[in-house]
From TrEMBL:
Residues 1-126 form the Dilute domain. It holds the Pfam family DIL. SMART domains: DIL. This is MYO5B protein. InterPro entries: Dilute_dom, Vascular_dev_regulator. It comes from the Eukaryota. One of its GO terms (molecular function) is GTPase binding.
Length: 171
């Protein structure tokens, strides 16, 4: 059950983040607020179902950081440093794309300046990020089956002749 929810939450993360990276109309402060609220609801649900050890919440980390990125101030060099230190699960390309797509919804907000984005790129140039922008939403985590050794020894097993397993020999 834990592995199923980890996979499901990864798919939620990948599809949502990919939509965020491809749609200018959703890159805003209010979308960041809505994403963070929805993610907290998912995390609360995991805690309520005692699934916090499943790793499902960790698969949402890039989406959490993208929501934070949308909510953070984007003006000063200190803001750039805060973004670089808090967005460790996002690639440089993803951060820059979100900043380029950021669209203010009211007159109190300003667009992200080109100088600010270049400052971010300068801070993140040492990172060795993968070149892909979008997440692979078809990625599958390996299924792990726990090994539970049996208390029954092989010597005590009797195989009925009706099973036609004559090729099996006791050693």
């Amino acid at each position: 059950i834990q592995q199923v929810f980890k996979q499901l939450f990864y798919m939620i993360n990948a599809v949502t983040l990919n939509n965020l990276l491809l749609r200018k109309d959703v890159c805003s402060w209010s979308t960041g607020m809505q994403l963070r609220f929805n993610i907290s609801q998912l995390e609360e649900w995991l805690r309520g179902k005692n699934l916090q050890q499943s790793g499902a919440a960790q698969t949402l980390e890039p989406l959490i950081q993208a929501a934070q990125l949308l909510q953070l101030k984007k003006k000063t060099p200190e803001d750039a440093e805060a973004i670089c230190s808090s967005c460790t699960s996002l690639t440089t390309q993803q951060i820059v794309k979100i900043l380029n797509l950021y669209t203010p919804l009211n007159e109190f907000e300003e667009r992200v300046t080109v100088a600010f984005i270049r400052n971010i790129q300068k801070h993140l140039q040492e990172r060795n990020d993968p070149p892909q922008l979008l997440l692979d939403f078809k990625h599958m985590f390996p299924v792990l089956f726990p090994f539970n050794p049996s208390a029954i020894t092989m010597d005590s097993i009797h195989l009925p002749a009706s099973l036609n397993l004559d090729f099996l020999n006791k050693v």
